[in-house]
Amino acid sequence: MKVTRIDRRTAKMLSHELEKAATIIAEKYGLKVSKKSGSFDEMRHTARVEFSVGENADGKSSNQVDFDKYCSWYGLKPEHFGQKIALDGDTYTISGVRTKATKNTICIERVTDGKTFVVSEKVVQRILGIKHTDPFGVELPEVN
Question: How are strands ordered across the β-sheet holding 116-119?
C-alpha cells in the first residue's frame, strides 16, 4: 500500500506500527515504551515514542522518582504516591505529577481498569485532608 495523503486514520495506523516496532527494541534492552502525542497534516505525520527504564536501582518507577522530586510543589509528600483515594464513586491510585501543566497537575489511575486521569492538586489535597499553608506554616483559607 502506498500512502499518498495522510489523514487521521493513516496517522493512527502509522503511530500504531511505530509503537509495535519500538516495543521490539524496548524488549531487547529491557526498557518500557510509551506512545506520546503527535501531529499530522496532509503531507506529514510526526509520531513520538518514549523509551524509559522500568525501575531505578531503588525499585522505583520513573513516575515515582518524578513524584518524589516534585510532589512538594503541589502540597503533597512522597508517601502519597500509590495511595488510594475515592472520587466520584470510584477508587483511584495517585500515580504521578505533570510538572509542565498549569492545572490538573496530579495523575490518578482508576483501580478498576487502570485508566489514567488528571485532577488538580486541590482536589487531591481536599480528599487527603491536607491543610493549605504558607511557607511559614500559617494555614491559608480554602480557595476554589
Answer: 84-87, 90-97, 106-110, 116-119
